[in-house]
Amino acid sequence: MTEMVTNEVPASNAYLEKMNKFWRAANYLSACQLYLLDNPLLKKPLTPDMIKKKIVGHWGTVPAQNFVFVHMNRLIKLYDLDLILLSGPGHGGNFFIANDYLDGSYSEIYPNISQDEAGMQKLFKQFSFPGGVPSHCAPETPGSIHEGGELGYSIAHACGAIFDNPDLIAATVVGDGEAETGPLATSWQCNKFINPITDGVVLPILNLNGYKIANPTIFGRMSHQELVDFFHGCGWEPYFVEGDDPMTMHRLMADTMDTVIARIKEIQAHARQQNDATRPVWPMVILRTPKGWTGPKVVDGKRIEGNFLAHQVPIAMDKPEHLQLLSDWLHSYHAEELFDETGKLLPELRALAPEGDRRIGMNPHANGGILYRELRLPDFRDYAFDIGNHGEKDSQDTQNLGPYIRDIFKLNDDAKNFRIFSPDENNSNRFQAVFDVENRDWNVQATAEDDHLSPSGRVMDSMLSEHMCEGWLEGYLLTGRHGFFDTYEAFSRIVDSMAAQHAKWLKVCNQLPWRHSIASLNLMMCSTVWQQDHNGFTHQDPGFMDHMANKNADVVRIFLPPDTNCLLATMDTCLRTQNFVNVIIASKHPRPQWLSMEEAVKHCTQGIGIWDWASNDQGQDPDIVFACAGETPTLEALAAVSILRKELPELKIRFINVVDLFKLLPQTEHPHGLTDVEYDMLFTKDKPVIFNFHGYPKLVHELTYHRHNNRLMHVCGYREEGTITTPFDVRVQNNVDRFHLVRSALKRLPNLGNRGAYLFQKMNDKLVEHKQYIHDKGVDLPEVSQWKWED
After folding, report:
1. All residues at 6 or more sequence positions from 349 whose CB lies less than 8 Å from its CB, including other chains
2. Could you tell me the maximum CA-CA distance found in the chain, to the nearest angstrom?
């Protein structure tokens, strides 16, 4: 009869012996994934043809992560825990695959990788092999929500996962190399935002194996007392498990984890029974093990186990004697004691793993679309701004969006599945309306003067870290919930790579039928390049768009709503989507409002269109096309058109506004792209186009490269010019202002002759007048600051 885990605490020696065998099995499968093409159970002597020609992968962190996995299995069974595991070290995805295979979850999702010798051979061959699976804990890996291709985000993702998940434990292996990254160093402060009543638990397990790829680690060389002092200072209680003897370590780990789980349950019971959200001192584990534990001791006269040389492939297989070394190493795990003749894990070992959805590889939180609940959204049209006539009234777009966001919180109060993430910028970005119904998350000391702080708050802007806010949101989305991230446009660049990694994750997930869709990653840039009159040059960088525009067309979307009603329509659309990265560039400053809600819905649904009220070419071909994308470029383009129409009334001008930037791409390159026929109907094939753009001009040139009239398009945009000056002067310095736009148009209309020359001179005079005025008065010309569109 199969022995099942009992509620006996501490674990019996017999049970620990079985755990050690399970660990050996995981180590064996992990090592074989690196090397073997054939002979998975080593029934025959190894020969060179059984070895992969190119060995790619990592070993150094793998044995310790296998060790953690088997102990997490014990805890799940013993305490019936809802637990997911995040692998922070990044490399060594073979460990996660090995454990998924041992508990059967891998074969359930990938039936071709069967629980027998043939399936084991396929498991080994596919790893880090053309047509196979990556070497990281990739989307293809059941149970993974964190790839770790870029280090530093494991605790942030874990913390996002446990927000509003009171019964979830996110055990997180943190590599001691990873712990040296900026995001991870900041992540130790995440305990200040965890509510012990309504949130789950992040359980960091810092694995000190002593080395990075070629150097010792800082944490690995810190003394015991220094480690204690560091983590006490960060608000954690560290529990140490240190050594290299397997059975001694299993006993230490089991006893320590029993103590840790008891402490977690004690904290939660007190908080929930007493309704006391006071921040506790959460436990964490420091696991000190040799790098490449149980691997080859010495190769070519150099120490491998316990040294940086164990980081990647411990035996390079570039010498004849390496074959015997590999054979000895793999045989040291004694696969014949772990698997039967058919290659199936022995039943008494399989019984150590949890069953069903309690298996780490099958936990629904690690496939968040399973738990996805549709977000309840108010009707965005109810928040319409009454524009009067086109451009008659000024207003602040994000401030007007605030009540809509506020009411999302209200409508989803019972579900607790929506949060805002913003690095100390919620007020600056004009979302104060949400504080009518919600508070900021804060579980540290507070004073009476603080603004809307609460341990139960769900506005995540009390930490000045773009990395943490983005990571929290990603973890929140990956476990089935909803939210958005708003930040200053220039500092969105801090999370360039995070957003790119998430886009890559989604791209792969879209190819995996078993990965259920999650809410889109919505990123809003609010303090934009075009108005930084109190910050200046350092706060001017629209390059996030360029970065994301290069990502997979099936995943990324970029929107530039020109006013409030377009922003409302765009935000509503983005919050309804799944498996996208939506980038929204929005204004927080007072700006003219152009479109009624009815007009905005039509415009945003199409993503691009002619504004007939700003055009005068109806019924005939235009002489020139003005196009724009972004709120400030739209304002200046309309002002330029008004000058041209007043000074040269016979000139026929078509005005186009772009909300969905990828409309500019051909339909063959992006799902949102226009066909050539549609594009040519808007922009013509043979007329000059002045395109006023929010970001760097090269992006528009790249997007329109294959269009018929691309050589006739002149793009104005940000040119890396700026300082602390007036808003209009920043536009002048970058040639996106109305006066420069008129000059650009005249240069492309040589048939105007003398009339064009006089208007060109007039624009030159205006530019001089502008500079003199701001240097004298400190503000923009009244004709600029008070300008209104006249129909």
Report:
1. 18, 21, 22, 25, 102, 338
2. 101
- Kindly state whether residues 275 and 299 are assigned to the same domain: yes
Looking at 315, 342, 367, which one is the last position of a domain?
Answer: 367
- For 564-575, how does the pLDDT look when each residue is reduced to its tens digit (9 = 90+)? 999 999 999 999
Strand partners, 223: none
d(CA 682, CA 600): 18
**Average of per-residue pLDDT across 64-92:** 95
- pLDDT (tens digit per residue) in 585-638: 999 999 999 999 999 999 999 999 999 999 999 989 999 999 999 999 999 999
Residue 604 maps to a domain: no
Total domains present in the chain: 3
Q: 421: domain range? A: 381-591
591, 611, 630: which is the final residue of a domain?
A: 591
Strands (E), 226-362: 236-242, 282-288, 298-299, 302-303
Confidence of residue 8 (pLDDT cuts 50, 70, 90): low
Tokens found for residue 104: 């059967």
Reduce the DSSP state of residue 235 to 3 states and report it.
coil
Span 474-522, pLDDT tens digits: 999 999 999 999 999 989 999 999 999 999 999 999 999 999 999 999 9
266, amino acid identity:
E
Contacts (Cβ under 8 Å, ≥6 apart) of 746: 752, 756, 759, 760, 763
Is residue 750 classed exposed, middle or buried when 0-12, 13-18 and 19+ CB atoms within 10 A define those classes?
exposed
Residue with tokens 């019996």: 12
Distance (Å, whole) CA 565 – CA 310: 58
Report the C-alpha gap between 68 and 144 in whole angstroms: 15
Dihedral sign of CA atoms 18, 22, 24, 25 in order: positive
Distance set, CA 339 to CA 41, 62, 103, 373, 511 (Å): 8, 20, 13, 42, 33
Return d(Cα 651, Cα 624) in angstroms, integer.
8
Contact between 177 and 210 under an 8 Å Cβ cutoff? The reply is: no
